Amino acid sequence: MKSGRRGKLSGMTEINVTPFIDVMLVLLVIFMVTAPLLTTGVQVELPKAKSSPMQADDSKLLIIITADEHVFLGKDEITGAVEEKLGANARLREEKEAYVQADENVKYGAVLRVMAAARAAGVDKLGMITDPLAVK
């Protein structure tokens, strides 16, 4: 009688792994999608891009930032609150367009502060001027 029981129990020796594989594939896809979202503080080197030269003429309103972080609106130096001086400029209020030309040695924060002041003064279009010949 014992041999008969063993015959009935011996038929269940295989484990069905299909649901296990399905679950693992779903988890793999979830981790592949969420892993790039979890990375923070990645250091990147910004790409250098060639640009076509912009025609330099007096029709464009320039905000110039020198290496020692002095700010000019055209040829006139802005002293004091940059946002107030930019907001007081009639041409800037009318055109709502300006171009920032900053020295390559100016800190990024200084350029960002001037751009934020220009936005707060009502500038809708803000462009950056570079020297296309200096791009390596």
Note down, in words, how this protein is organized.
The chain is an alpha/beta fold and 136 residues long. The chain folds into 2 domains: 2-38, no CATH class; 62-134, Nucleotidyltransferase, domain 5 (2-Layer Sandwich). The chain is 40% helix and 15% strand. The chain contains 5 helices and 5 strands.
What would you say about this model in short?
The chain is α/β, with parallel strands linked by helices and 136 residues long. The protein folds into two domains: 2-38, no CATH class; 62-134, Nucleotidyltransferase, domain 5 (2-Layer Sandwich), CATH 3.30.420. It contains five helices and five strands.
Using brief descriptors, characterize the structure shown.
136 residues, alpha/beta, Nucleotidyltransferase, domain 5, 5 helices, 15% strand
- The averaged pLDDT comes out at 76
Give the number of helices. 5
Q: SSE order, as H and E?
A: HHEEEHHEHE
Q: What is the CATH top level name of the largest domain? A: Alpha Beta
* SS-derived structural category: alpha/beta
CATH topology of the largest domain: Nucleotidyltransferase, domain 5
The outline comes out as rod-shaped
Number of folding domains?
2
Helix content: 40-55%
* End-to-end C-alpha gap: 88 Å
Largest sheet: 5 strands, mixed
Major beta sheet, strand line-up: 3-2-1-4-5
CATH architecture of the largest domain: 2-Layer Sandwich
Describe how the helices and strands are arranged:
Elements: H1 2-9, H2 18-38, E1 62-65, E2 71-73, E3 76-78, H3 82-88, H4 90-95, E4 97-102, H5 108-120, E5 125-128
Parallel strand pairs: 1-4, 4-5
Antiparallel strand pairs: 1-2, 2-3
Helix pairs in contact: 3-5
